[in-house]
Amino acid sequence: MSVTNPGAISPPTRSFPLGGTMAWWVWILAVTFVVYLFSFQTGYAIVNPSVQKDVGLNITQVGTIAAVYTWAFAICQFFGGALLDRLGSRKVLPISIALVTLGIFMFANAHSYGMLLLSQVIIAIGSCTGFVGAGYVGGQWFGMAKFSFMFGLVQVVAALTSAFSVNLIGLALSATTWRTLFNWTAISGIVLFVLALMYIRNPAPVEHHDEGGIGAFFGSVLRNMAEVAKIGHVWVAALGGAYSFGVMLALGVVWMPKLLQVHGFSEGTSNFGASMLWFGLAAGSAVIPHWSDVIQRRKLPIIVGAVVQLLALLILLYLGGIGLLFAFILCFLFGFANAAHMLAFSTAADVVKPSQIGTSAAIVNGIMFIFGGILMNRPGVRIGWGLEAGVPPASLQLAQYAALPALVACVLALLIALVMRETYPAHH
């Protein structure tokens, strides 16, 4: 039986004006998907103690569950952006939403470590086109001149939602179980899937010329990825962004609440403090990409962000007896400064063709999440090593030992920012 060429399936032939009502509606749906998956991802920081107790996990397994999602996401991410470039958002995003919804339902009803890991893999496969897909929709529906701004706006919404969801999930868990909560989350995903199926589309037909069925199609995807991967600066941008955002992901999803508890704050207060990371990221994502466009520079904002986040983390780890308000300010400042990682997408997009922005964004985001997975996993492993070596449990000394990979990552992000070249279109 012959296999239909995906590129031959005709998209809607009607074209829509850029920046109009339909553009905003499609963008809102794409961003809602990002909100949906980010809320689940950051919510894991709150529910993981309940999951650990209910399923019978150890601390290493808690970190590994988050890391497996991140690694699977990163691997799939490399294909997600290229698929968007080749197929467009209409054919890709509804299927992605369906997979995430299925994975969340499995997570809510898992009774073993293996089932939790499988649910994370399914969620990761669906999520791989979420954040990049919203950026792709912004570039396609509003034009490349607004790509950096629209991508920053995606992060603003996603980070704000993550911040609020951390607190709302904490409140919800006082009234219901984590299983009930995520079963209802899966039901809301079904609603989003139906809306996406009805309304998400491309502003104009996606044009490509693949022939020869699915094999040739994926061959063209790999060739497109290889073409972008040959550009050295894409890798510089990816590594700089990865070292920076990887730390944010590790702290925001797993470790910041535990670090704040070491400072003597209650579990609820620590969870709220961790949400300040996301509030900061939201504020920074609204400011830093815009600042980059105003000064027509990529490099300077990235350097400033790397310096501030390193200083904030050093204070949180090495200054004992910090007050509650100061700890919250430091979390906010770390998140705000970390928003400079968004310029990794912009500087990579500066050096590729417009038809390859999805692929470049996917490579950058994929590398970010690979390092995010490593940085989620390593502190848990190092905590075990530290306890075996006699480091006092639940101590600042143990937190410092566990957080060494995060500090190294922040230093490397700063070094890359210092040596990277300027790519703003007016200057390269």
Automatic annotation (TrEMBL):
The chain crosses the membrane at residues 24-47, 59-80, 92-110, 116-137, 149-175, 181-200, 234-256, 268-288, 300-319, 325-345, 357-378, 398-420. Keywords: Cell membrane, Membrane, Transmembrane, Transmembrane helix. It is a multi-pass membrane protein. Gene3D superfamilies: MFS general substrate transporter like domains. GO terms for cellular component: plasma membrane. It is found in: Cell membrane. InterPro entries: MFS, MFS_dom, MFS_Efflux_Transporters, MFS_trans_sf. Residues 25-424 form the Major facilitator superfamily (MFS) profile domain. GO terms for molecular function: transmembrane transporter activity. This is Sugar phosphate permease. It comes from Pseudoxanthomonas indica.
